[in-house]
């Protein structure tokens, strides 16, 4: 028997048409399916149009809406495919990994670098690959499928702005390769005894600060007035400048004294942070209540903090939850 899969369309380049203001999402969920009739060979498919926007306009509240839609339909379908714009797709795949846990069904997020109605496009392949992966035996959890690769939802990063090979798996193996009718899986899904768990709350008051030489630490004063959590993209394996007049450690102390949650990450894409190596990192760890992202992606660190802080603002509880592995987001 064929599996039943629900397509949840949200817009993005895959659903865009040319307008006088440039590409804009206009193609509906049913029209998307019409461009790839082969999907019906693999599964029974139904579709809904959740919204139709450029993914640049995606906000945390939209992740909650996706979560609610999947929960409402969870027992009606064997899996879900979400068509989405590529620009914030890695944030959505990470966020859904935290908002929907203990899955025994697949949630596949995909999109394209070219609209599905273009003469030359990657949209048809990505959409078909997503459905083919969704009906595979023993596939469950949140994945991003793109250019023949299935990437664990917390590990995806957009690394190219135009090329078809736009996404990479960061600090973790690709889950599967999808090559025409052959799917080679490299990761075994975790099995859960309890049912799927859905979270409806998100706490978007998180700021991402990327350090650059010459930046004044006073910026942390302003951020602390507006946000409850800060993820700092530092240099190398992680650390904060403290020499001379630009002493970030002093400002960091003010934030932690006020109960702000600080996560130190790295601007380096691969291999992650390890603040216990250099003085610039060890001083921050010894003096202040800070977390570090280790091998997590920035997208995962931000969305995980949003998910946790919707449940608690207590540092010790946040720390415990932040370091619990969810959907392969953390190896250290």
Structure description:
This protein has 332 residues and is α/β, with parallel strands linked by helices. Helices cover 29% and strands 26% of the residues. The strands form five sheets. An eight-stranded mixed beta sheet has the order 4-1-5-7-8-9-12-13, with helices on both faces. Strands 15-16-17-18 form a four-stranded parallel beta sheet, sandwiched between helices. β17, α8 and β18 form a beta-alpha-beta unit. α3 crosses α4. The longest helix is centred in the N-terminal third of the chain and has 14 residues. It is globular and about 65 Å long. The relative contact order is 0.12. The model has no long low-confidence stretch (mean pLDDT 95).
Question: What keyword list fits this structure?
Answer:
alpha/beta, 29% helix, 4-stranded parallel beta sheet, 18 strands, 332 residues, 8-stranded mixed beta sheet, globular
């Amino acid at each position: 028997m064929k599996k039943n899969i629900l397509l949840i369309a949200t817009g993005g380049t895959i659903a865009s048409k040319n307008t006088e203001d440039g590409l804009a999402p206009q193609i509906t969920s049913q029209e998307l399916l019409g461009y790839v009739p082969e999907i019906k060979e693999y599964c029974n498919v139904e579709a809904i149009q959740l919204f139709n926007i450029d993914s640049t306009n995606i906000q945390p509240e939209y992740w909650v809406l996706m979560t609610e839609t999947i929960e409402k339909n969870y027992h009606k379908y064997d899996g879900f495919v979400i068509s989405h714009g590529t620009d914030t797709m890695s944030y959505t795949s990470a966020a859904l990994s935290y908002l929907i846990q203990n899955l025994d069904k697949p949630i596949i997020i995909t999109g394209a670098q070219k609209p599905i109605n273009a003469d030359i496009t990657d949209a048809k392949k990505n959409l078909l690959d997503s459905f083919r992966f969704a009906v595979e035996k023993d596939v469950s959890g949140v994945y991003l499928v793109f250019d023949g690769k299935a990437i664990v939802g917390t590990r995806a990063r957009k690394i190219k702005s135009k090329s078809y090979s736009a996404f990479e798996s960061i600090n973790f193996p690709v889950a599967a390769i999808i090559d025409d009718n052959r799917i080679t899986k490299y990761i075994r899904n975790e099995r859960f005894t309890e049912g799927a768990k859905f979270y409806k709350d998100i706490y978007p008051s998180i700021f991402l600060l990327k350090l650059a030489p010459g930046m004044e630490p006073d910026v942390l004063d302003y951020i602390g007035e507006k946000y409850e959590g800060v993820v700092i993209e530092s240099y190398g394996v992680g650390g904060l400048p403290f020499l001379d007049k630009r002493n970030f450690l002093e400002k960091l102390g003010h934030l932690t004294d006020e109960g702000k949650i600080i996560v130190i990450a790295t601007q380096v894409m691969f291999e992650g942070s390890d603040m216990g190596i250099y003085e610039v990192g060890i001083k921050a760890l010894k003096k202040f209540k800070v977390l570090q992202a280790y091998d997590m992606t920035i997208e995962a660190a931000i969305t995980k903090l949003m998910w946790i802080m919707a449940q608690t603002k207590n540092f010790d509880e946040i720390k415990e939850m932040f370091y619990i592995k969810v959907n392969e987001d953390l190896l250290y």
